[in-house]
Amino acid sequence: MGLSLRGQTSGAVDINAPAVAGDNTITLPGGNGSANQFYKNSDTAGIITHSSMTESSSGVISIGDIDINGTTRTITTGVGQTVGFSTDIEVQGSVSISSGNLVLASGSGIDFSATADGTGTVTSELLDDYEEGEFTPSIDFNGNAVGLTYDIPRKGLYTKIGKQVTCYTAVALQDKGSSTGIVRLTGLPFVATDLVPGSSIEGGGLAIYQGGLNGTVVGPLTLTVIENSQHCEILDLSTTTAGTSNNIDNSDVQNTFSIRIVITYTAAN
Q1: Is the domain of 92 the same as that of 171?
Q2: Are residues 217 and 147 both part of a single domain?
Q3: What percent of the chain has pLDDT over 70?
Q4: Lowest-confidence pick of 61-75, 145-159, 209-223
Q5: Averaged over 221-244, what is the pLDDT?
Q6: Mean pLDDT over residues 74-91, rounded?
Q7: DSSP labels for the chain?
Q8: Residue 29 sits in which domain range?
Q9: Are residues 209 and 159 in the same domain?
Q10: Are both 71 and 166 inside the same structural domain?
């Protein structure tokens, strides 16, 4: 069935259901006229209900409103083109992505505000950041590393969920050099938050392996991430008494000092 309108700038065409079950199709010519528009019928519900549908010269289709009631509705454009929605879409059912990714604009995320809240004060229920990556950890002695060399390639992996950062690192020295001072692991991928001003400690972790320690240090070793920084200090729990801590320093480690650790802390951003 074909319909043709000529000589008018506007008009209306009603298509009723065919006698035999099947689809009714309207094909609009390309390149004729400034816009092709469909107008909704307020008395009936169709697959798409909207005020208008227009296609730009770049092939992007913009649609006013779509109401999906638990049924899959498909809009198809040409290969490599984009379907854009200018308003919210409510889906009463599951959404599946067979290929590709769900891409969110910066600052947007998955909103969990419909879930139950904890007993504390809720500040956000928006999951707006997830990231995996690598970084290069370093060892220094209170900021100095004169003559220090490494034995194996340094390796650091991190996962960031919201503001929570978890790092896994492996560092081994060949020569600790001549610098003195407390031992620090530096090069963390994000600046630690200033969660409790003045406390200095904003995260921590444990060594899952350590070697090349002098006899006075028996471990286990713990690490404290320092606020407003990208480094942590290393402490010996075996010599820590209540209310105090004991940082290890250059004199506590050998040239072959090595460490593998896991750290969790809160990023400033």
Answers
A1: no
A2: yes
A3: 64
A4: 61-75
A5: 82
A6: 62
A7: ------S-S------PPPSSS------PPTTSSS-------TTS--S---S-EEE-TTS-EEES--EE-SS------STT--EEESS--EESS----SSS-----TT--EE-TTSPP-SS-----EE--EEEEEE--EEEETTB-TT-EESS--EEEEEEETTEEEEEEEEEEEE--S--SBEEEE--SSPBP-SSTT--EEEEEEEEEEEEE-TT----EEEEEETTSSEEEEEEGGGPPTT---B-BGGGEEEEEEEEEEEEEEB--
A8: 1-6+23-101
A9: yes
A10: no
